[in-house]
Amino acid sequence: MAGVSFKDVAKRYGEVSVIEGLNLEIRDHEFMVLVGPSGCGKSTALRMIAGLEEISGGAVSIGERVVNDLPPKERDVAMVFQNYALYPHMSIRENLEFGLKIRKTPKPEMNRLVNDAAEILGISHLLERKPKQLSGGQRQRVALGRAIVRKPAVFLFDEPLSNLDAKLRVQMRSEIKKLQQRLGVTSVYVTHDQIEAMTMGHRIAVMKDGKLQQLGTPLEVYDRPANLFVAQFIGSPPMSFLTATLEADGESLSGDGFKLPVPRSLRPVTAGKGGLQLQVGLRPDHVLSPESPSRGETARIEVKVELVEPLGNEVIVHSRLGEHSLVYRLPPQHTPESGALMPVVVELDSLHLFDARTEQRLSA
């Protein structure tokens, strides 16, 4: 097994810089998720680990070896792609054996590796079928099996679930996570789906425009987003933002249609910064109906309900506060009417304050 590290890594196509100055340590046995919008450089980073993209600057290491100039076959990695890349004319057994035959693996060992992988993935009964006879989820299992039989030092996953329907994606992401826990192989997983990132990774690396925005556990990134981009990207429904000005005393915030006290925990960082323009972030879980139990300091505001989305166990309420949109959750028994004026309670200790100019978090 082996960790993976990026040291000041850059990738450029002529004058176009796709990744610049990437520094990232992926620990041995860790499940690391690279997440971000399309074009942020996450797949390019993965392909540099695999040797499918040349490195323009810096160093990529697997274990103790710098692999910049090593061909893919010498890197001891196995990659699972977005499209299953199965050979349609071969049986499932032959697809699983293909890479082992190239390495001239003895037949008894090859049979053992294929049978072990098939049993782990629950596809033993499919080995004599052709790929066209399998469902999407079964094909993805075969693609995983082809990686497992190689017993690599590192697994690489490039958006492997994006071709599956929603229900199957939920099932497969739990299977991939259990598989990684069972095998203990260092894994790097690329996705644009923040729910996949939050549910699968030991740690997640949020990327934007080829730069690392934040690295941490899912809970760390969710609870303390480093900047406005991470706050907007992580969370479903996403965080709402209110444009506000810090009052001269540093103890209250005012904006169109609202005034809120600064929570006591953040007053040390707002002291002496009167007039500072802020973006105030509120997660849907921290806006409550007045009847609901709350945590810590609270403040009451009044919003206008615009849209209600019932989800069975809860409702998602889209409302208006002055010029701002505010989204929050309510239990179904408190479902409001569209167009109604409704008082809500804000949990002040859960406010996220960002400097409107730098977009960086204000932290105590």
Description:
The protein has helices at residues 42-50, 92-102, 107-121, 136-148, 166-183, 194-200, 218-223, 228-233, 267-270; strands at 4-13, 16-26, 31-35, 57-62, 65-66, 77-80, 154-158, 186-191, 203-208, 211-216, 240-246, 252-255, 258-261, 277-282, 287-288, 298-310, 315-321, 324-330, 341-347, 352-355. By secondary structure, the protein is an alpha+beta fold. The protein folds into 2 domains: 4-233, P-loop containing nucleotide triphosphate hydrolases (Rossmann fold, 3-Layer(aba) Sandwich), CATH 3.40.50.300; 240-355, OB fold (Dihydrolipoamide Acetyltransferase, E2P), CATH 2.40.50. The protein has a 6-stranded mixed beta sheet, sandwiched between helices. A hairpin with a 2-residue loop joins strand 12 and strand 13. The longest helix has 18 residues, at 166-183.
